[in-house]
Amino acid sequence: MTSPAPVSARRDLTDAPLLVAARGGTPRHTPVWFMRQAGRSLPEYRKVREGTPMLQACLTPELVCEITAQPVRRHGVDAAILFSDIVLPLYAAGIGLDIVAGTGPVVAEPVRDAAAVAALPELHVEQVAPVAEAVRLLLAELGETPLIGFAGAPFTLASYLVEGGPSRNHERTKALMHSDPATWHALLEKLADTTLTFLRTQLAAGVDAVQLFDSWAGALSVRDYREFVLPHSERIFQGVAEAAPDVPKIHFGVGTGELLGDMQSAGADVVGVDWRVPLDEAARRLRAANPGSDPVVQGNLDPAVLFAGEDAVRREVSRILAEGTAAAGHLFNLGHGVLPTTDPDVLTAVVRQVHAESARS
Ligand code: CP3
């Protein structure tokens, strides 16, 4: 593993609601941002992306800066999230993969045995230098708005590499895990190294918070999560904490109601919750799993509810704000990413409502 330059002077955003809430303090209003806020729901995004393939766009600093800033300008969200993709560091490291429209990431040669794992290249900092450059451009562009960096967690990355693309049942991934644990752990170790190099690069460039996406971890039993996944994600959070002790760490997955406590104990400051578990229940589970902890949660409006009309959206936002008060802190978000056909004006209205209803004088 190669290490990026030491962490540069991070911006002092002491009062930024997102950072205050993530650290368990009392922000002036509940912060709100949306997973996938930068992207296909925005006409201004479709316009600037036209003609540029996704992975190439992720390695073009000016484009990343523009796309990342678009939802901040339009919606007034409390954070920007770097425009990238979880497979970008794998691509940058030289693994043959592409993002295919309408499908998602597709891997040329799926990784299914010890030889393929041994042959996987590791990521070098220079290979993601354009991402570091994009972060630097963004810090100048965003003013007081925090920038969230992110990476995919080893299990979710492994699922794409082993299956060869998106998967409903993750059967080849689980087969490797159970039939050849040594190869499985070697694979996750390599992926954790890559993720850590990618996150350290973003931290060195100055991101204000990080989110680890283990989007598909909810496919696992608690037992399998603990044995085959948790130690690797834990190592990533430790590495982030060592590189940047004050930077809040968010851990997110879909369908992870049974895993919330473990996802917190992996080393997260904030646990992402999808729409299936109410935030007050999520806070209860986190306290039960880690006694003495004061959990901070992120979520959890069902992205499909954004299609249900103004009244329904308002009711759901109010409910979630009320349930979020059961935790020591709440970062308002969706339970998963913005769907492509979402009306952007509905997102703007959610931001206004969250700010108005949660304002503290
Ligand atoms: O859809 C868009 O907004 C346009 C750009 C795009 C992204 N990813 C942005 C992205 C495209 C075409 C992809 C490809 C992709 N990558 C897909 C298919 C997307 C689709 O539905 O067409 C998938 C499933 C991936 C893999 C992936 N990328 C995962 C599992 C995650 C974690 C978040 C999640 O949805 O579970 C990502 C991260 C990601 N992809 C982000 C962005 C802007 C970053 C995080 C964010 O903004 O929330």
TrEMBL record:
Cell compartments where the protein resides: Cytoplasm
Catalytic activity: uroporphyrinogen III + 4 H(+) = coproporphyrinogen III + 4 CO2
Coiled coil, from the record: none
Gene3D superfamilies: 3.20.20.210
Binding-site residues, substrate: R36, Q37, A38, G39, R40, D85, Y160, S215, H336
SUPFAM superfamilies, per database record: UROD/MetE-like
Keywords from the UniProt entry: Cytoplasm, Decarboxylase, Lyase, Porphyrin biosynthesis
Major localization class: cytoplasm
Domain Uroporphyrinogen decarboxylase (URO-D) intervals: 31-40, 148-164
Recorded GO MF terms: uroporphyrinogen decarboxylase activity
Subunit structure: Homodimer.
HAMAP family tied to this protein: URO_D
UniProt record similarity statement: Belongs to the uroporphyrinogen decarboxylase family.
Designated name of the protein: Uroporphyrinogen decarboxylase
Organism of origin: Saccharopolyspora gloriosae
